[in-house]
Amino acid sequence: xxxxxxxxxxxxxxxxxxxxxxxxSPETVVLHHGNCKSSRFWYAWVPLLARHxxxxxxxxxxxxxxxxxxxxSSWSLSGFATDLKRLLDYLELDRVHLVGETVGGxxxxxxxxxxxxxxxxxxxxxxxxxxxxxxxxxxxxxxxKVGVLAWARESMARRLDASQVDPAFVEWYASEMGKTSQWVxxxxxxxxxxxxxxxxxxxxxxxxxxxxAENRPGYTPELVEEMHQLIPHSEQVIFPGVTGFVxxxxxxxxxxxxxAFLSRLASGKAER
Amino acid sequence: MKNxxxxxxxxxxxxxxxxxxGADLHYELENFTDPWTKPKTFLLHHGFSRNSQFWYxxxxxxxxxxxxxxxxxxxxxRSPVPTESYNPSAETLVGDVIGLLDHLGIExxxxxxxxxxxxxxxxxALAHPERLHALVLIGSPLRVxxxxxxxxxxxxxxxxxxxxxxxxxxxxxxxxGQRLDVSVAPAxLAEWWISEMGKTNPENxxxxDHFIATVDTTSRLSELKVPTLYxxxxxxxxxxxxxxxxxxxxxxxxxxxxxxxxxPALFALKPERCVQEILTFLRxxxxx
Lengths: 272, 288
Known about the structure:
- The complex is a heterodimer.
- By secondary structure, chain A is an alpha/beta fold.
- Chain A has helices at 45-49, 77-90, 103-114, 135-146, 148-154, 167-177, 182-192, 198-202, 221-230, 246-249, 251-271, and strands spanning 3-7, 10-17, 28-32, 54-58, 96-101, 119-125, 208-215, 234-243.
- The radius of gyration of chain A is 18 Å and the shape is globular.
- By secondary structure, chain B is α/β, with parallel strands linked by helices.
- An 8-stranded mixed sheet of chain B has the order 1-2-4-3-5-6-7-8, with helices on both faces.
- Chain B starts with a helix and ends with a helix.
- The A-B interface holds A 1-2, 15-26, 28, 40, 43-44, 46-48, 50-51, 54, 91-95, 166, 168-169, 171-172 and B 1-5, 8-10, 15, 30, 32-37, 53, 56-57, 59-61, 63-64, 188-189, 191-192.
Protein backbone atom coordinates (compact mmCIF):
# COMPACT_ATOMS: atom_id res chain seq x y z
CA UNK A 1 0.00 0.00 0.00
CA UNK A 2 1.08 3.52 -0.68
CA UNK A 3 3.29 6.24 0.73
CA UNK A 4 2.49 9.93 0.66
CA UNK A 5 5.40 12.34 0.49
CA UNK A 6 3.76 14.98 2.63
CA UNK A 7 6.71 17.09 3.77
CA UNK A 8 10.35 17.20 2.76
CA UNK A 9 11.73 13.68 3.05
CA UNK A 10 8.94 12.43 5.24
CA UNK A 11 6.96 9.62 3.64
CA UNK A 12 3.79 8.68 5.43
CA UNK A 13 2.46 5.16 5.02
CA UNK A 14 -1.29 4.91 4.70
CA UNK A 15 -4.03 2.46 3.74
CA UNK A 16 -7.39 3.13 2.14
CA UNK A 17 -10.15 0.53 2.27
CA UNK A 18 -13.42 1.29 0.54
CA UNK A 19 -16.07 -1.30 -0.23
CA UNK A 20 -18.94 1.12 -0.68
CA UNK A 21 -21.07 1.41 -3.84
CA UNK A 22 -18.65 2.57 -6.52
CA UNK A 23 -20.97 5.18 -7.96
CA UNK A 24 -21.42 6.96 -4.64
CA SER A 25 -19.11 9.34 -2.83
CA PRO A 26 -18.83 8.00 0.70
CA GLU A 27 -17.79 9.93 3.76
CA THR A 28 -14.33 9.15 5.11
CA VAL A 29 -13.32 7.79 8.50
CA VAL A 30 -9.68 8.33 9.47
CA LEU A 31 -8.24 6.03 12.16
CA HIS A 32 -5.22 7.35 14.11
CA HIS A 33 -3.22 4.90 16.25
CA GLY A 34 -1.52 5.71 19.54
CA ASN A 35 2.06 5.70 20.78
CA CYS A 36 4.30 2.79 19.72
CA LYS A 37 1.53 1.39 17.55
CA SER A 38 0.56 1.57 13.85
CA SER A 39 -2.23 1.30 11.31
CA ARG A 40 -2.13 -2.51 11.67
CA PHE A 41 -3.72 -2.32 15.13
CA TRP A 42 -7.02 -1.19 13.56
CA TYR A 43 -7.44 -4.37 11.45
CA ALA A 44 -10.65 -5.52 13.17
CA TRP A 45 -12.37 -2.17 12.54
CA VAL A 46 -11.83 -2.12 8.78
CA PRO A 47 -14.30 -4.76 7.48
CA LEU A 48 -16.94 -3.44 9.88
CA LEU A 49 -16.61 0.12 8.60
CA ALA A 50 -15.51 -0.09 4.99
CA ARG A 51 -18.86 -1.18 3.57
CA HIS A 52 -20.29 2.15 4.69
CA UNK A 53 -17.31 4.52 4.68
CA UNK A 54 -13.98 5.03 2.98
CA UNK A 55 -11.53 4.03 5.73
CA UNK A 56 -8.13 5.69 5.89
CA UNK A 57 -5.46 4.42 8.30
CA UNK A 58 -2.11 6.10 8.65
CA UNK A 59 1.22 5.38 10.31
CA UNK A 60 2.24 8.50 12.21
CA UNK A 61 5.73 9.98 11.77
CA UNK A 62 8.23 7.63 13.39
CA UNK A 63 5.89 4.63 13.62
CA UNK A 64 4.84 1.61 11.59
CA UNK A 65 6.08 1.89 8.03
CA UNK A 66 6.33 5.68 7.90
CA UNK A 67 9.70 7.45 7.83
CA UNK A 68 11.48 7.57 11.16
CA UNK A 69 13.09 10.94 11.94
CA UNK A 70 16.62 10.90 13.45
CA UNK A 71 17.20 11.04 17.23
CA UNK A 72 16.82 14.50 18.71
CA SER A 73 14.02 15.55 16.35
CA SER A 74 11.36 17.80 17.78
CA TRP A 75 8.08 16.13 18.69
CA SER A 76 4.73 17.65 19.62
CA LEU A 77 1.03 16.87 19.50
CA SER A 78 0.69 19.84 17.18
CA GLY A 79 3.35 18.36 14.87
CA PHE A 80 1.40 15.10 14.57
CA ALA A 81 -1.79 17.07 13.97
CA THR A 82 -0.08 19.00 11.18
CA ASP A 83 1.09 15.75 9.57
CA LEU A 84 -2.51 14.56 9.59
CA LYS A 85 -3.67 17.78 7.93
CA ARG A 86 -1.00 17.33 5.25
CA LEU A 87 -2.23 13.78 4.58
CA LEU A 88 -5.81 14.97 4.23
CA ASP A 89 -4.64 17.67 1.80
CA TYR A 90 -2.63 15.10 -0.15
CA LEU A 91 -5.64 12.76 -0.42
CA GLU A 92 -7.92 15.73 -1.23
CA LEU A 93 -10.21 14.86 1.67
CA ASP A 94 -12.10 17.94 2.66
CA ARG A 95 -13.81 16.84 5.89
CA VAL A 96 -13.57 13.52 7.70
CA HIS A 97 -14.70 11.60 10.76
CA LEU A 98 -11.55 11.28 12.89
CA VAL A 99 -11.08 8.43 15.35
CA GLY A 100 -8.03 8.39 17.62
CA GLU A 101 -7.02 5.72 20.11
CA THR A 102 -4.99 6.44 23.27
CA VAL A 103 -2.42 9.13 22.38
CA GLY A 104 -3.86 9.13 18.85
CA GLY A 105 -6.93 10.59 20.55
CA UNK A 106 -4.84 13.32 22.15
CA UNK A 107 -3.41 14.10 18.70
CA UNK A 108 -6.96 14.08 17.34
CA UNK A 109 -8.10 16.54 19.99
CA UNK A 110 -5.19 18.80 19.05
CA UNK A 111 -6.26 18.47 15.41
CA UNK A 112 -9.89 19.25 16.26
CA UNK A 113 -8.73 22.41 18.03
CA UNK A 114 -6.38 23.54 15.25
CA UNK A 115 -8.38 22.44 12.17
CA UNK A 116 -12.08 22.19 13.08
CA UNK A 117 -13.12 22.91 9.50
CA UNK A 118 -11.60 19.56 8.42
CA UNK A 119 -13.76 17.42 10.72
CA UNK A 120 -17.28 16.04 10.60
CA UNK A 121 -16.83 14.34 13.98
CA UNK A 122 -14.28 13.29 16.56
CA UNK A 123 -14.09 9.97 18.42
CA UNK A 124 -11.67 9.23 21.25
CA UNK A 125 -10.93 5.66 22.35
CA UNK A 126 -9.18 5.16 25.70
CA UNK A 127 -7.54 8.55 25.27
CA UNK A 128 -5.63 10.46 27.95
CA UNK A 129 -5.73 14.26 28.07
CA UNK A 130 -3.58 15.06 31.09
CA UNK A 131 -0.13 13.56 30.99
CA UNK A 132 0.94 14.20 34.56
CA UNK A 133 1.08 10.58 35.69
CA UNK A 134 4.47 8.98 36.37
CA UNK A 135 3.75 6.55 33.57
CA UNK A 136 5.15 8.86 30.84
CA UNK A 137 8.59 9.77 32.21
CA UNK A 138 8.82 6.29 33.77
CA UNK A 139 8.14 4.66 30.43
CA UNK A 140 10.82 6.76 28.74
CA UNK A 141 13.36 5.71 31.41
CA UNK A 142 12.37 2.05 31.07
CA UNK A 143 12.53 2.12 27.28
CA UNK A 144 16.03 3.60 27.46
CA LYS A 145 17.14 0.93 29.90
CA VAL A 146 15.58 -2.30 28.54
CA GLY A 147 14.26 -1.39 25.09
CA VAL A 148 10.74 -0.92 23.75
CA LEU A 149 9.82 -4.62 23.49
CA ALA A 150 10.62 -5.43 27.12
CA TRP A 151 8.88 -2.25 28.29
CA ALA A 152 5.81 -3.09 26.20
CA ARG A 153 5.67 -6.67 27.50
CA GLU A 154 5.98 -5.55 31.13
CA SER A 155 3.21 -2.96 30.82
CA MET A 156 0.70 -5.01 28.76
CA ALA A 157 -1.76 -5.24 31.68
CA ARG A 158 -2.73 -1.58 31.19
CA ARG A 159 -3.66 -2.37 27.57
CA LEU A 160 -5.10 -5.88 27.50
CA ASP A 161 -6.40 -7.94 30.38
CA ALA A 162 -4.69 -11.31 29.88
CA SER A 163 -7.60 -13.09 31.53
CA GLN A 164 -10.02 -11.69 28.95
CA VAL A 165 -8.14 -12.02 25.67
CA ASP A 166 -6.21 -14.65 23.72
CA PRO A 167 -2.60 -14.80 25.03
CA ALA A 168 -1.48 -14.85 21.41
CA PHE A 169 -3.09 -11.43 21.03
CA VAL A 170 -1.14 -10.08 24.00
CA GLU A 171 2.11 -11.40 22.55
CA TRP A 172 1.37 -10.05 19.07
CA TYR A 173 0.43 -6.64 20.50
CA ALA A 174 3.62 -6.36 22.57
CA SER A 175 5.84 -7.55 19.75
CA GLU A 176 4.30 -5.05 17.31
CA MET A 177 4.83 -2.24 19.82
CA GLY A 178 8.38 -3.51 20.25
CA LYS A 179 9.10 -2.70 16.59
CA THR A 180 9.13 1.03 17.42
CA SER A 181 12.53 2.70 17.22
CA GLN A 182 13.90 3.16 20.72
CA TRP A 183 14.61 6.89 20.51
CA VAL A 184 11.17 7.56 19.03
CA UNK A 185 9.48 5.84 21.99
CA UNK A 186 11.73 7.55 24.54
CA UNK A 187 11.52 11.03 23.05
CA UNK A 188 7.76 10.99 22.45
CA UNK A 189 7.00 9.74 25.95
CA UNK A 190 9.25 12.47 27.40
CA UNK A 191 7.59 15.16 25.31
CA UNK A 192 4.09 14.06 26.30
CA UNK A 193 4.85 14.28 30.02
CA UNK A 194 3.36 17.39 31.57
CA UNK A 195 0.89 18.16 28.76
CA UNK A 196 -2.64 19.09 29.72
CA UNK A 197 -5.21 19.44 26.96
CA UNK A 198 -8.05 20.78 29.17
CA UNK A 199 -7.93 24.30 27.72
CA UNK A 200 -8.10 23.26 24.11
CA UNK A 201 -10.78 20.67 24.87
CA UNK A 202 -13.11 23.43 26.05
CA UNK A 203 -12.76 24.94 22.59
CA UNK A 204 -13.45 21.83 20.50
CA UNK A 205 -16.42 22.66 18.30
CA UNK A 206 -16.89 19.25 16.68
CA UNK A 207 -19.43 16.62 17.85
CA UNK A 208 -17.36 14.19 19.92
CA UNK A 209 -17.77 10.60 21.10
CA UNK A 210 -15.69 9.38 24.05
CA UNK A 211 -15.24 5.61 24.43
CA UNK A 212 -13.60 3.89 27.37
CA ALA A 213 -13.54 0.58 29.17
CA GLU A 214 -14.98 0.59 32.66
CA ASN A 215 -11.59 -0.48 33.97
CA ARG A 216 -8.60 1.25 32.57
CA PRO A 217 -5.38 0.85 34.55
CA GLY A 218 -3.96 4.32 35.11
CA TYR A 219 -7.24 6.02 34.27
CA THR A 220 -10.50 6.37 36.22
CA PRO A 221 -14.12 6.80 35.13
CA GLU A 222 -13.96 10.22 36.85
CA LEU A 223 -11.30 11.32 34.39
CA VAL A 224 -13.48 10.17 31.49
CA GLU A 225 -16.36 12.14 32.99
CA GLU A 226 -14.06 15.15 33.20
CA MET A 227 -13.33 14.83 29.47
CA HIS A 228 -17.06 14.77 28.79
CA GLN A 229 -17.51 17.95 30.84
CA LEU A 230 -14.64 19.71 29.13
CA ILE A 231 -15.64 19.01 25.52
CA PRO A 232 -18.85 20.94 24.75
CA HIS A 233 -20.70 18.69 22.27
CA SER A 234 -19.63 15.31 23.58
CA GLU A 235 -21.11 11.96 24.55
CA GLN A 236 -19.37 9.27 26.58
CA VAL A 237 -19.90 5.53 26.36
CA ILE A 238 -18.35 3.30 29.02
CA PHE A 239 -18.04 -0.42 28.29
CA PRO A 240 -18.77 -2.42 31.45
CA GLY A 241 -16.80 -5.53 32.29
CA VAL A 242 -13.90 -4.59 30.02
CA THR A 243 -10.38 -3.97 31.31
CA GLY A 244 -7.87 -2.16 29.13
CA PHE A 245 -8.11 -0.67 25.65
CA VAL A 246 -11.68 -1.30 24.60
CA UNK A 247 -11.04 -0.36 20.93
CA UNK A 248 -8.78 -3.43 20.60
CA UNK A 249 -10.62 -5.75 23.02
CA UNK A 250 -14.18 -5.16 21.74
CA UNK A 251 -13.84 -3.77 18.22
CA UNK A 252 -17.30 -4.95 17.10
CA UNK A 253 -19.05 -3.24 20.00
CA UNK A 254 -17.03 -0.06 19.54
CA UNK A 255 -17.84 0.10 15.84
CA UNK A 256 -21.51 -0.53 16.58
CA UNK A 257 -21.56 2.43 18.97
CA UNK A 258 -19.53 4.55 16.55
CA UNK A 259 -21.85 3.82 13.60
CA ALA A 260 -24.89 4.67 15.73
CA PHE A 261 -23.21 7.97 16.67
CA LEU A 262 -22.55 8.81 13.01
CA SER A 263 -26.07 7.85 12.09
CA ARG A 264 -27.48 10.18 14.75
CA LEU A 265 -25.26 12.98 13.45
CA ALA A 266 -26.43 12.37 9.89
CA SER A 267 -30.10 12.43 10.78
CA GLY A 268 -29.51 15.50 12.94
CA LYS A 269 -28.21 17.23 9.83
CA ALA A 270 -31.19 16.09 7.80
CA GLU A 271 -33.55 17.70 10.30
CA ARG A 272 -31.98 21.11 9.74
CA MET B 1 -16.61 18.73 -0.93
CA LYS B 2 -13.79 17.50 -3.10
CA ASN B 3 -13.23 13.78 -2.60
CA UNK B 4 -11.56 12.24 -5.64
CA UNK B 5 -12.64 8.63 -5.29
CA UNK B 6 -11.31 7.04 -8.43
CA UNK B 7 -7.63 7.70 -8.01
CA UNK B 8 -7.49 7.11 -4.27
CA UNK B 9 -9.55 3.95 -3.98
CA UNK B 10 -7.71 0.89 -2.72
CA UNK B 11 -6.59 -1.45 -5.45
CA UNK B 12 -6.25 1.22 -8.08
CA UNK B 13 -4.72 0.06 -11.34
CA UNK B 14 -1.21 -1.14 -11.00
CA UNK B 15 -1.25 -2.39 -7.42
CA UNK B 16 -0.44 -5.15 -6.79
CA UNK B 17 0.78 -7.07 -9.79
CA UNK B 18 2.16 -10.59 -10.13
CA UNK B 19 4.24 -11.61 -13.13
CA UNK B 20 2.79 -14.99 -14.04
CA UNK B 21 3.42 -17.07 -17.14
CA GLY B 22 4.61 -14.09 -19.16
CA ALA B 23 1.87 -11.65 -18.19
CA ASP B 24 1.46 -8.97 -15.51
CA LEU B 25 -1.67 -10.03 -13.68
CA HIS B 26 -3.44 -7.73 -11.26
CA TYR B 27 -5.08 -9.01 -8.10
CA GLU B 28 -6.44 -7.82 -4.76
CA LEU B 29 -5.59 -9.47 -1.45
CA GLU B 30 -7.29 -8.58 1.81
CA ASN B 31 -6.87 -10.08 5.25
CA PHE B 32 -8.33 -8.45 8.34
CA THR B 33 -8.13 -11.54 10.52
CA ASP B 34 -6.23 -11.78 13.80
CA PRO B 35 -2.62 -11.47 12.60
CA TRP B 36 -1.27 -14.39 14.66
CA THR B 37 -3.68 -16.85 13.02
CA LYS B 38 -3.47 -18.68 9.70
CA PRO B 39 -6.93 -18.34 8.20
CA LYS B 40 -8.19 -20.12 5.10
CA THR B 41 -8.18 -18.22 1.82
CA PHE B 42 -11.17 -17.51 -0.39
CA LEU B 43 -10.45 -16.97 -4.07
CA LEU B 44 -13.23 -14.98 -5.72
CA HIS B 45 -13.12 -15.13 -9.52
CA HIS B 46 -15.09 -12.71 -11.67
CA GLY B 47 -16.78 -13.56 -14.96
CA PHE B 48 -16.53 -12.50 -18.60
CA SER B 49 -15.40 -8.92 -19.08
CA ARG B 50 -15.75 -8.18 -15.41
CA ASN B 51 -13.00 -7.67 -12.83
CA SER B 52 -11.92 -8.03 -9.21
CA GLN B 53 -13.89 -4.95 -8.14
CA PHE B 54 -17.24 -6.65 -8.80
CA TRP B 55 -16.81 -8.55 -5.52
CA TYR B 56 -16.68 -5.37 -3.43
CA UNK B 57 -19.60 -6.35 -1.20
CA UNK B 58 -18.01 -9.70 -0.40
CA UNK B 59 -14.76 -8.43 1.06
CA UNK B 60 -16.23 -6.97 4.27
CA UNK B 61 -18.35 -10.10 4.70
CA UNK B 62 -15.39 -12.48 4.54
CA UNK B 63 -12.16 -10.66 5.34
CA UNK B 64 -12.58 -10.61 9.12
CA UNK B 65 -12.50 -14.40 9.11
CA UNK B 66 -10.58 -15.31 5.93
CA UNK B 67 -7.93 -14.05 3.60
CA UNK B 68 -9.66 -12.89 0.39
CA UNK B 69 -7.93 -13.10 -2.98
CA UNK B 70 -9.53 -11.55 -6.09
CA UNK B 71 -7.58 -12.16 -9.30
CA UNK B 72 -8.09 -10.19 -12.49
CA UNK B 73 -8.27 -12.43 -15.54
CA UNK B 74 -5.57 -12.23 -18.18
CA UNK B 75 -6.54 -10.04 -21.11
CA UNK B 76 -9.32 -8.13 -19.40
CA UNK B 77 -9.44 -4.58 -18.08
CA ARG B 78 -7.08 -4.77 -15.12
CA SER B 79 -4.69 -7.35 -16.51
CA PRO B 80 -4.40 -6.16 -20.10
CA VAL B 81 -2.41 -8.24 -22.55
CA PRO B 82 -1.54 -7.32 -26.16
CA THR B 83 -4.16 -8.81 -28.47
CA GLU B 84 -1.52 -10.36 -30.77
CA SER B 85 -0.22 -12.54 -27.96
CA TYR B 86 -3.60 -13.17 -26.30
CA ASN B 87 -4.62 -16.80 -26.60
CA PRO B 88 -7.02 -17.76 -23.85
CA SER B 89 -7.29 -21.47 -23.24
CA ALA B 90 -8.18 -23.63 -20.27
CA GLU B 91 -4.51 -24.53 -19.75
CA THR B 92 -3.32 -20.91 -19.76
CA LEU B 93 -6.06 -19.60 -17.51
CA VAL B 94 -5.83 -22.48 -15.02
CA GLY B 95 -2.08 -21.96 -15.11
CA ASP B 96 -2.63 -18.34 -14.11
CA VAL B 97 -4.75 -19.34 -11.11
CA ILE B 98 -2.22 -21.91 -9.88
CA GLY B 99 0.66 -19.57 -10.71
CA LEU B 100 -0.87 -16.82 -8.59
CA LEU B 101 -1.43 -19.19 -5.66
CA ASP B 102 2.16 -20.40 -5.90
CA HIS B 103 3.42 -16.80 -6.16
CA LEU B 104 1.53 -15.90 -2.97
CA GLY B 105 2.45 -19.11 -1.14
CA ILE B 106 -1.19 -20.15 -0.78
CA GLU B 107 -1.64 -23.89 -0.69
CA UNK B 108 -5.42 -24.29 -0.88
CA UNK B 109 -8.41 -22.05 -1.41
CA UNK B 110 -12.17 -22.03 -1.25
CA UNK B 111 -12.75 -21.14 -4.90
CA UNK B 112 -15.85 -19.07 -5.67
CA UNK B 113 -16.63 -18.17 -9.29
CA UNK B 114 -19.36 -16.35 -11.11
CA UNK B 115 -20.29 -17.63 -14.63
CA UNK B 116 -17.03 -17.79 -16.52
CA UNK B 117 -15.13 -17.54 -13.24
CA UNK B 118 -17.02 -20.62 -12.10
CA UNK B 119 -16.22 -22.55 -15.28
CA UNK B 120 -12.56 -21.67 -14.75
CA UNK B 121 -12.98 -23.01 -11.22
CA UNK B 122 -14.25 -26.30 -12.59
CA UNK B 123 -11.26 -26.60 -14.90
CA UNK B 124 -8.95 -25.74 -12.00
CA ALA B 125 -10.63 -28.33 -9.76
CA LEU B 126 -10.31 -30.97 -12.46
CA ALA B 127 -6.62 -30.28 -13.05
CA HIS B 128 -5.58 -29.50 -9.46
CA PRO B 129 -8.08 -30.85 -6.92
CA GLU B 130 -5.41 -30.73 -4.22
CA ARG B 131 -5.41 -26.90 -4.37
CA LEU B 132 -9.10 -26.47 -3.51
CA HIS B 133 -10.85 -26.94 -0.17
CA ALA B 134 -14.16 -26.54 -2.01
CA LEU B 135 -15.64 -25.19 -5.22
CA VAL B 136 -18.54 -22.72 -5.33
CA LEU B 137 -20.25 -22.06 -8.64
CA ILE B 138 -22.64 -19.13 -8.82
CA GLY B 139 -25.15 -18.83 -11.64
CA SER B 140 -22.91 -20.50 -14.18
CA PRO B 141 -23.69 -22.66 -17.20
CA LEU B 142 -22.05 -26.04 -17.69
CA ARG B 143 -21.57 -25.18 -21.32
CA VAL B 144 -22.07 -22.02 -23.29
CA UNK B 145 -24.05 -22.44 -26.50
CA UNK B 146 -23.23 -19.04 -27.90
CA UNK B 147 -25.78 -19.24 -30.71
CA UNK B 148 -28.58 -19.92 -28.20
CA UNK B 149 -27.50 -17.04 -25.97
CA UNK B 150 -27.12 -14.84 -29.04
CA UNK B 151 -30.69 -15.63 -30.08
CA UNK B 152 -32.01 -14.99 -26.60
CA UNK B 153 -30.23 -11.65 -26.37
CA UNK B 154 -29.99 -10.23 -29.89
CA UNK B 155 -28.04 -7.09 -30.67
CA UNK B 156 -28.52 -4.24 -33.17
CA UNK B 157 -25.32 -5.13 -34.97
CA UNK B 158 -26.62 -8.60 -35.78
CA UNK B 159 -23.79 -10.52 -34.13
CA UNK B 160 -22.18 -10.36 -30.71
CA UNK B 161 -18.79 -9.94 -32.35
CA UNK B 162 -20.16 -6.95 -34.22
CA UNK B 163 -21.61 -5.44 -31.05
CA UNK B 164 -18.43 -6.06 -29.03
CA UNK B 165 -16.23 -4.56 -31.70
CA UNK B 166 -18.03 -1.29 -31.08
CA UNK B 167 -17.14 -1.49 -27.41
CA UNK B 168 -17.82 -4.11 -24.77
CA UNK B 169 -20.06 -1.60 -22.99
CA UNK B 170 -22.15 -1.37 -26.15
CA UNK B 171 -22.62 -5.14 -26.21
CA UNK B 172 -23.09 -5.26 -22.43
CA UNK B 173 -25.80 -2.62 -22.43
CA UNK B 174 -27.80 -4.41 -25.11
CA UNK B 175 -27.54 -7.79 -23.39
CA UNK B 176 -27.51 -6.69 -19.75
CA GLY B 177 -30.56 -8.75 -18.88
CA GLN B 178 -28.59 -11.89 -19.66
CA ARG B 179 -26.13 -11.31 -16.85
CA LEU B 180 -27.81 -9.03 -14.29
CA ASP B 181 -31.38 -9.14 -12.99
CA VAL B 182 -32.36 -5.58 -13.82
CA SER B 183 -35.72 -5.98 -12.09
CA VAL B 184 -33.82 -6.32 -8.81
CA ALA B 185 -30.61 -4.36 -9.42
CA PRO B 186 -30.55 -0.59 -8.78
CA ALA B 187 -30.13 1.38 -12.01
CA UNK B 188 -26.77 2.73 -10.85
CA LEU B 189 -25.45 -0.81 -10.37
CA ALA B 190 -26.41 -1.76 -13.93
CA GLU B 191 -24.77 1.41 -15.26
CA TRP B 192 -21.62 0.69 -13.30
CA TRP B 193 -21.54 -2.89 -14.65
CA ILE B 194 -21.85 -1.62 -18.19
CA SER B 195 -19.15 1.02 -17.80
CA GLU B 196 -16.72 -1.37 -16.04
CA MET B 197 -17.23 -4.02 -18.70
CA GLY B 198 -16.62 -1.28 -21.26
CA LYS B 199 -13.04 -0.99 -20.01
CA THR B 200 -12.14 -4.28 -21.69
CA ASN B 201 -10.26 -4.26 -24.98
CA PRO B 202 -12.91 -5.40 -27.52
CA GLU B 203 -10.54 -7.64 -29.47
CA ASN B 204 -9.51 -9.49 -26.31
CA UNK B 205 -13.14 -9.77 -25.26
CA UNK B 206 -14.04 -11.33 -28.61
CA UNK B 207 -11.17 -13.81 -28.35
CA UNK B 208 -12.19 -14.81 -24.83
CA ASP B 209 -15.83 -15.09 -25.84
CA HIS B 210 -14.84 -17.42 -28.69
CA PHE B 211 -12.93 -19.60 -26.27
CA ILE B 212 -15.88 -19.67 -23.87
CA ALA B 213 -18.10 -20.86 -26.72
CA THR B 214 -15.99 -24.05 -26.89
CA VAL B 215 -16.50 -24.83 -23.20
CA ASP B 216 -18.42 -27.96 -22.27
CA THR B 217 -17.92 -29.38 -18.80
CA THR B 218 -20.87 -31.80 -18.92
CA SER B 219 -18.77 -34.84 -19.75
CA ARG B 220 -16.39 -34.28 -16.85
CA LEU B 221 -18.77 -33.65 -13.96
CA SER B 222 -18.23 -37.08 -12.45
CA GLU B 223 -14.50 -36.37 -12.23
CA LEU B 224 -14.90 -33.43 -9.86
CA LYS B 225 -13.21 -34.55 -6.66
CA VAL B 226 -13.81 -31.47 -4.53
CA PRO B 227 -16.93 -30.65 -2.50
CA THR B 228 -19.02 -28.48 -4.82
CA LEU B 229 -21.74 -25.96 -4.01
CA TYR B 230 -23.90 -24.57 -6.81
CA UNK B 231 -25.84 -21.37 -6.12
CA UNK B 232 -28.22 -19.61 -8.49
CA UNK B 233 -31.22 -17.34 -8.52
CA UNK B 234 -34.41 -19.11 -9.54
CA UNK B 235 -34.67 -16.89 -12.62
CA UNK B 236 -31.08 -17.44 -13.75
CA UNK B 237 -30.81 -17.64 -17.58
CA UNK B 238 -27.44 -19.33 -17.76
CA UNK B 239 -28.39 -22.82 -16.63
CA UNK B 240 -31.29 -25.07 -17.59
CA UNK B 241 -33.21 -27.45 -15.30
CA UNK B 242 -31.70 -30.33 -17.30
CA UNK B 243 -28.19 -29.08 -16.60
CA UNK B 244 -29.01 -28.73 -12.92
CA UNK B 245 -30.21 -32.32 -12.85
CA UNK B 246 -27.01 -33.42 -14.56
CA UNK B 247 -24.99 -31.54 -11.95
CA UNK B 248 -26.91 -33.14 -9.11
CA UNK B 249 -26.59 -36.61 -10.60
CA UNK B 250 -23.01 -36.59 -11.79
CA UNK B 251 -20.89 -34.55 -9.38
CA UNK B 252 -19.89 -36.89 -6.52
CA UNK B 253 -20.14 -34.35 -3.66
CA UNK B 254 -22.53 -31.59 -4.68
CA UNK B 255 -25.15 -29.35 -3.12
CA UNK B 256 -27.49 -27.14 -5.17
CA UNK B 257 -29.23 -24.12 -3.64
CA UNK B 258 -31.70 -22.08 -5.68
CA UNK B 259 -32.61 -18.69 -4.26
CA UNK B 260 -36.10 -17.42 -5.04
CA UNK B 261 -36.98 -13.92 -6.18
CA UNK B 262 -33.87 -13.21 -8.19
CA UNK B 263 -32.32 -13.95 -11.60
CA PRO B 264 -28.82 -13.45 -12.97
CA ALA B 265 -25.95 -12.17 -10.82
CA LEU B 266 -26.98 -13.69 -7.52
CA PHE B 267 -23.43 -13.01 -6.31
CA ALA B 268 -23.90 -9.28 -6.79
CA LEU B 269 -27.53 -8.98 -5.71
CA LYS B 270 -27.57 -11.25 -2.65
CA PRO B 271 -24.02 -11.38 -1.35
CA GLU B 272 -24.99 -11.99 2.29
CA ARG B 273 -27.17 -14.96 1.32
CA CYS B 274 -24.38 -16.40 -0.82
CA VAL B 275 -21.83 -16.07 1.98
CA GLN B 276 -24.26 -17.61 4.45
CA GLU B 277 -24.79 -20.63 2.17
CA ILE B 278 -21.07 -21.03 1.62
CA LEU B 279 -20.25 -20.94 5.34
CA THR B 280 -22.99 -23.47 6.06
CA PHE B 281 -21.62 -25.70 3.29
CA LEU B 282 -18.09 -25.45 4.70
CA ARG B 283 -19.33 -26.32 8.19
CA UNK B 284 -21.24 -29.32 6.79
CA UNK B 285 -17.95 -30.51 5.31
CA UNK B 286 -15.94 -29.84 8.49
CA UNK B 287 -13.97 -27.22 6.65
CA UNK B 288 -14.86 -24.55 9.24
